[in-house]
Design brief:
36% of the residues lie in helices and 20% in strands. By secondary structure, it is of the alpha/beta class. The protein has one domain: Vaccinia Virus protein VP39 (Rossmann fold, 3-Layer(aba) Sandwich), CATH 3.40.50. The radius of gyration is 18 Å and the shape is globular.
Length: 277
C-alpha cells in the first residue's frame, strides 16, 4: 500500500495522538482527577442560560445525541472519543452500545477506566484507532458521532467516506467542526498558531458531504451558542495551570483564545445520513 502523505500543514495522526497524550496528562487534575470530562466546547441555548461550563459541555453532547436518533441496542461509533465522557453519557441515556476510538493511547486508557467505573464496560468500549482507516466492517454501526475531531483529520473527505462505509443504510453522522468566518483579508486565518488543527470554509461542507456519498440533513452555525462563553470559561480555568506563554499546544487546548483569532472562528453542527440502498 502506498505511503499516505498528508497535504502541507495537514495534521499527522501520530503527532495528534502524542499531543493529546500530553494534554490529557497535563489537564487530568484540573479537568477530572484522572476520570471522565468533556474535552469539547459547551452549548448555551441563549444569552441568559445559567448553565455552568461543565453543564454546557454535557448540553452539547445532548444536542448532538438528539440528532443521532438512537434507541436501546443501537450501535454508535464515537470518532475522537476523548476520555469517554460523551460515550458514557449517551450510553446511559439511550441504551445504545457505544464504541469510541481515538489516536491517543492515554485517552483510551482513561476512557476504559471511566467505562469500568460507570459499570458500563459491557455496553461501552474504546480502542486506539485512526479514523482514516476504521478497523470495522462495512455497515456495522447505526450512527457515527464526531465531536470536534474533524479539525485533526488530514483529509475530511476520506474520514467521511470511512464513516459512510461503516454505517448501515439510513444511518446518521452527526459532527461538529470549526470553520473560517469571513475576514477582511482572504489570507487571514483564525488559527494564528496551530496544534495539528485545520478549519474549512463554511460553504465547502455540502460538497464535502456529497463527495463522500452522504445525504445532507442539517447544518447549523452554532458559533454564538458555543465559542464565546466556552473560550472565556477555558481562559479562567487555565489560570490554575500556569501555562507558559510559549507552550502553543497547551495554550490552544486549555486557553484557545490566547492563540486563535476568535472573531474569525466559527463552529458548525452537521447532520448527514447514508442513503438507503
Amino acid at each position: 500500500m502506498a505511503e499516505r502523505v498528508p497535504a502541507p500543514n495537514a495534521p499527522v495522526p501520530e503527532e495528534v495522538g502524542r499531543m493529546y497524550d500530553r494534554m490529557t496528562l497535563l489537564g487530568a487534575d484540573l479537568l477530572g482527577n484522572g476520570h471522565g470530562y468533556n474535552a469539547h466546547l459547551g452549548y448555551w441555548d441563549g444569552p441568559h442560560s445559567e448553565l455552568t461550563y461543565d453543564q454546557a459541555t454535557d448540553r452539547l453532547t445532548d444536542v448532538m445525541a438528539q440528532r443521532l436518533r438512537l434507541g436501546s441496542g443501537a450501535r454508535l461509533l464515537d470518532v475522537g472519543c476523548g476520555v469517554g465522557a460523551p460515550a458514557v453519557r449517551i450510553a446511559r441515556r439511550t441504551g445504545a452500545e457505544v464504541t469510541g476510538i481515538a489516536v491517543s493511547r492515554e485517552q483510551i486508557a482513561r476512557a476504559d477506566e471511566l467505562a469500568h467505573t460507570a459499570g458500563l464496560r459491557g455496553q461501552v468500549s474504546f480502542r486506539q484507532a485512526d479514523a482514516m482507516d476504521l478497523p470495522y466492517a462495512d455497515a456495522s454501526f447505526d450512527a457515527v458521532l464526531a465531536i470536534e475531531s474533524m479539525p485533526h483529520m488530514p483529509d475530511r473527505g476520506r474520514v467521511l467516506r470511512e464513516m459512510r462505509r461503516v454505517l448501515r443504510p439510513g444511518g446518521r453522522v452527526v459532527l461538529t467542526d470549526f470553520f473560517r468566518r469571513r475576514s477582511p483579508s482572504p489570507a487571514t486565518h483564525p488559527l494564528r498558531q496551530t496544534m495539528g488543527s485545520t478549519t474549512v470554509p463554511l460553504d465547502d461542507y455540502p460538497a464535502i458531504l456529497r463527495a463522500a456519498g452522504l445525504e445532507f440533513v442539517e447544518m447549523l452555525d452554532i458559533t454564538e451558542e458555543t465559542v464565546p462563553r466556552s473560550f472565556a470559561a477555558l481562559a479562567e480555568q487555565a489560570k490554575d495551570l500556569h501555562l507558559a506563554p510559549e507552550d502553543t499546544e497547551a495554550q490552544c487546548y486549555f486557553n484557545p483564545q490566547a492563540v486563535i483569532d476568535t472573531d474569525l472562528l466559527g463552529y458548525l453542527l452537521v447532520a448527514a445520513r447514508r442513503p438507503r440502498d
